[in-house]
Design goal:
The complex is a heterodimer of chains A (283) and B (339).
Chain A: H1 2-44, H2 50-54, H3 68-100, H4 104-117, H5 121-136, H6 141-165, H7 169-177, H8 182-210, H9 214-217, H10 237-246, H11 250-280
Chain B: H1 4-10, H2 40-77, E1 87-88, E2 93-94, H3 97-128, H4 131-146, H5 149-176, H6 191-214, H7 219-227, H8 232-243, H9 245-261, H10 264-269, H11 287-294, H12 301-338
Antiparallel strand pairs in B: 1-2
Helix pairs in contact in B: 2-12, 3-6, 3-9, 3-11, 4-6, 5-6, 6-9, 7-8, 9-12, 11-12
The chains are: A mainly alpha (283), B mainly alpha (339).
């Protein structure tokens, strides 16, 4: 009887300890998020003013100056990458969901895309350096966009496929029974039904690549000026942040915190927006 | 699915209800063709298949190009490139060992921290927290994965490293005594700080996959254990974890793959020294940090080739780890679908 009570007590204590550890783990994660966010706001906000968005970078020691060219550069490179990556990803994803399905070819593509989703982005940067930068004999906005597009494509492929798989087969069969050819079923029925989910997926992919720095370091490089054309190096917020943060100048570091705040809130806002959209539109 | 249409068309014979002769499909009553051109369907399929094939082409090109462009490093230094500790751009001597060592050690420490903590988060989210708490906490943990790598790096260098060197590392050194693992000055920059930041970055991957596979455990199994008087921890330990082991290992491999290739955060805090130190407080380097630091400034051909060869090594290592992760995760997926 006594022995049984001791055992029960020990089990209860183990249980309490383990559950406390689990709750602490969750708290541990939250602490980091709050700590990083608080730092960003505290150090980043003072750097953000009108000049930050409208002026070109100034040399260290000179007051004023902003990151207008880097902000526009980030938009250009990310926009180009989206324009390349999204159509390619959607078409490939359409094949997997609508035509390939269980075939060996489709399975291989699915597996490779899944692995590529997590592949190190810096390796993609090295690859683009070898095929685009070396071939064009120089760093360029285009090379940066290609690198980001290659990172984006596998994500879009998998998202497209998963969302299209959620479209019920009865819808396709109904449309086919009315005599619609299959391409029309895909374009007018499946895509329309999957629109909300695909938008979410694409937003998440865009958010992800807009925070990428590693693949831009030696493809798009950087520039302190406005970029005259897309075959020239271009400034992006991320690479500028890297250079400024690593510099010994206090005013550049302050500017880097401003850039960090802007990037993080851009990425997080897009991510949350995407999640809220998918929460609303039920598939 | 796509062969349904022709089947329907062939089966369409007989007369319509008003007794008039049936209109053949694809023709209006006047006999004009209305059917859309038949070539569009195969063409559409062909185009999508082509783009799907591009994915395979891309990964093949990735391997071939990196192998080819990095090959001069192997022909110059021989296979000893892999185990040489030299890295001297001025003399043109390169060896990969310090980078490989740093990559493996920082990721291993990161996994050792992130795996138990990530599982703890998953247990909290699935077995403990009420839904009104689990949703926002889960979302917040996923936000950790959305914060760009470079932000972790900058924050690590300017906020976390000073914090570590002022408050944490001196205490650690005192507890560890004269252990070689914690030799050297506690600068807050080096292998251990980099691994800590990596651990936070990969935590959300383990936590969210863990949560997803935990949620797949049949309620009946858990209820049976509770019915026998098991505590929550015993249910987790003896029902939930054995049930989801494959998925959990997959999650850990996936996080490992991420950690190995993580670049910007590590570049900021690891110290970028091309040497192997036993001390976890000493600066080191990883393959990714070496690439990020030196690639845009490398001039000599052998330097660039050596860097690309490093990239090739990273590609091979991460691909193997990630492929393993995917195979494990797919196995648990298909088991659940087959149920």
């Amino acid at each position: 009887m006594k022995k049984g009570r001791g055992l029960r007590l020990r089990r209860k204590i183990t249980n309490a300890l383990m559950l406390a550890a689990a709750a602490l783990s969750a708290a541990f994660g939250l602490v980091w998020l709050l700590w990083i966010m608080a730092t960003l706001v505290r150090k980043g906000l003072p750097a953000i003013n009108w000049a930050f968005f409208t002026q070109l970078p100034s040399p260290p020691g000179t007051p004023g100056g902003g990151l207008a060219n880097a902000i526009v550069g980030t938009l250009i490179v990310t926009g180009l990458a989206t324009a390349i990556g999204v159509p390619v990803g959607i078409l490939a994803g359409t094949y997997l969901a609508e035509f390939g399905r269980g075939s060996a070819f489709a399975k291989t593509v699915r597996f490779v895309a899944d692995v590529l989703v997590s592949a190190p982005s810096i390796v993609i940067g090295v690859f683009v350096y070898a095929i685009v930068v070396m071939a064009m004999h120089g760093f360029s906005a285009i090379a940066g966009a290609v690198a980001l597009a290659l990172i984006m494509i596998p994500v879009v492929v998998r998202v497209t496929e998963e969302i299209l798989n959620l479209v019920p087969d009865q819808l396709r069969e109904a449309a086919l029974a009315l005599g619609a050819p299959y391409w029309k079923v895909v374009l007018a029925i499946c895509y329309r039904r999957a629109l909300g989910g695909m938008t979410t997926g694409i937003l998440l992919a865009v958010a992800r690549v807009s925070g990428e720095t590693a693949p831009l370091l030696f493809t798009a490089l950087n520039s302190p000026f406005w970029t005259p054309s897309l075959d020239k190096p271009i400034a992006t917020l991320n690479v500028t942040l890297f250079n400024y943060a690593m510099s010994p100048y206090d005013d550049w570091r302050g500017m880097a915190w401003g850039a960090a705040l802007l990037i993080t809130f851009g990425v997080l806002a897009t991510t949350v927006l995407a999640r809220v959209v998918v929460g609303r539109i039920r598939i | 699915m796509s062969d349904l249409t022709p089947g329907l068309r062939e089966g369409y014979t007989g007369t319509s209800r008003d007794g008039r002769e049936a209109v053949p499909p694809g023709r209006s009553r006047s006999g004009a063709r209305t059917r859309p051109a038949a070539w569009i369907d195969p063409a559409f399929k062909g185009v999508t298949a082509l783009f799907a094939g591009l994915i395979l082409l891309f990964v093949a090109a990735l391997g071939v190009v990196l192998w080819h462009k990095g090959h001069p490093a192997l022909t110059t230094f021989g296979p000893s490139f892999l185990w040489s500790q030299q890295w001297n751009p001025v003399k043109g001597l390169f060896g990969a060992l310090p980078s490989i060592y740093g990559t493996l050690v920082s990721s291993a420490i990161a996994i050792a921290i992130a795996a138990p903590v990530g599982l703890g988060v998953a247990v909290f989210l699935v077995e403990m927290a009420p839904p009104w708490l689990a949703r926002p906490v889960g979302l917040a943990i996923e936000m950790l994965a959305a914060i760009p790598s470079i932000i972790y790096g900058m924050w690590g260098l300017f906020v976390f490293a000073p914090f570590l060197s002022a408050h944490v590392l001196p205490a650690v050194k005192k507890v560890a005594g004269g252990s070689f693992l914690f030799a050297g000055p506690p600068m807050g920059i080096g292998m251990l700080p980099a691994a800590l930041i990596l651990a936070v970055m990969i935590l959300p991957f383990i936590a969210s996959i863990g949560r997803d596979v935990f949620a797949l455990v049949p309620a009946v199994d858990k209820e049976s254990a509770y019915g026998l008087g098991a505590t929550t921890w015993e249910v987790v330990r003896h029902v939930v974890i054995p049930h989801t082991r494959t998925g959990l290992i997959g999650a850990i491999f996936l996080a490992l793959g991420r950690a190995l290739g993580e670049t910007m955060a590590v570049t900021f805090v690891i110290g970028n020294a091309h040497k192997i130190s036993a001390s976890l407080l000493a600066p080191g380097c990883t393959i990714a940090s070496t690439l990020a630091n030196e690639f845009s400034e490398a001039v000599s051909e052998i330097h660039i080739a050596s860097l690309i060869e490093l990239g090739f090594l990273l590609f091979v290592i991460t691909t193997i780890i990630l492929a393993l992760a995917k195979l494990l995760l797919w196995r648990i997926e298909s088991r659940i679908k087959g149920r």
